[in-house]
Amino acid sequence: xxxxxxxxxxxxxxxxxxxxxxxxxxxxxxxxxxxxxxxxxxxxxxxxxxxxxxxxxxxxxxxxxxxxxxxxxxxxxxxxxxxxxxxxxxxxxxxxxxxxxxxxxxxxxxxxxxxxxxxxxxxxxxxxxxxxxxxxxxxxxxxxxxxxxxxxxxxxxxxxxxxxxxxxxxxxxxxxxxxxxxxxxxxxxxxxxxxxxxxxxxxxxxxxxxxxxxxxxxxxxxxxxxxxxxxxxxxxxxxxxxxxxxxxxxxxxxxxxxxxxxxxxxxxxxxxxxxxxxxxxxxxxxxxxxxxxxxxxxxxxxxxxxxxxxxxxxxxxxxxxxxxxxxxxxxxxxxxxxxxxxxxxxxxxxxxxxxxxxxxxxxxxxxxxxxxxxxxxxxxxxxxxxxxxxxxxxxxxxxxxxxxxxxxxxxxxxxxxxxxxxxxxxxxxxxxxxxxxxxxxxxxxxxxxxxxxxxxxxxxxxxxxxxxxxxxxxxxxxxx
Length: 480
Description:
Elements: E1 7-9, E2 15-17, H1 18-31, H2 37-53, H3 55-66, H4 71-97, E3 100-102, E4 112-119, E5 122-126, H5 134-145, E6 149-153, H6 159-172, E7 178-180, H7 185-192, E8 198-202, H8 205-216, E9 222-225, E10 231-234, H9 240-252, E11 264-268, H10 272-286, H11 302-317, E12 321-324, E13 340-343, E14 360-366, H12 369-377, E15 384-388, H13 392-401, E16 406-409, E17 430-431, H14 436-442, E18 444-451, H15 468-479
Parallel strand pairs: 5-6, 5-8, 6-7, 8-9, 10-11, 10-15, 11-14, 13-14, 15-16
Antiparallel strand pairs: 1-2, 3-4, 4-18, 9-17, 12-13
């Protein structure tokens, strides 16, 4: 498969086989297998400066890719978030790289035990289209902090962003520490089959399965960030106005095209109408006329827009009530879809079966907290669970009894901006973590280093022959 992979354009502009490009990265890493602290910090600093200098270029590129995405939203959700991640890693890198002393224990007393964080080598990053810059750059920060060389496969759905990233890396890394490989799904399939030392993929669960199968042939370890249907659980004691504002915000950023956006809302049956009214009002305050508002992002392409329309048509055909917030129907060709709430949903509706990944929000009423928790437990583990409550006992229960990549209490979406928190899913929402120290560890090998002195120490007691006194001592140690 690799030998027949599509031709790609390397950082110098000439055609080269993808396998050859990977092998060149292997050779370069072998020549410098442990970049110094100074080199790693310098890589992050140069990347920060270059992004700051070319920020306007990127905001224009991604807006063109989406049809419309306001520069302010891109700056907040992608550029600023990346900059914070890079600075966070740069400040803490010395401590992350330090050798960690471990206890030898009584039996091995006198020996020195350490864990040494070693770069893995050449790692791959496969990024999605919804945040096509940030979902490359945050794992890239972790991979560079860990001392690796990196190949990046941006999404072909956002081609202008992909071209920007290729140009950016050519400028910042003339020696090829980071190279972007652009191309269609054929190139992506060949990319996932390369024998990386680690592969991080962000995208759908369906594609994630293909990536994992390809990686398995090389025993390549993978981190999969997959998403899923992230619920917002509004408890009986919740402040409905606060919950509505924060759910509306989480579902309107990037027009709901976010892996941790609220996918559906569980609400007490007696509060359903009040919450729906509050969410509509909260969205309307942010975007009074969303279909004509440049600050509101378009659905990325016609295929995604048609999928949104098909979900609504299916739900309506099965008796659901459709409630549109923030303006009228989208204009032909604009792909502006205001936040649309759906009441009267059933499990048979398509919008309750797969991740929506857009500005559609099903409302699911419940009659007790037990019923709501059971509803969540009966479905695949989500990437995030949002819980709105002031009841500490309920929070503790949800922490203990449910599985999700993260639990966000009285909020939605914004926890992903905290670099000191690991980011990742569980079960069908993914495997592995990155961001912050966890990201550094993901792209490192924690090598055990055991040092035994040449002079006598306690380990000599383990050598044969064993006398009765020695066996008695060893048994005493075992039973102590």
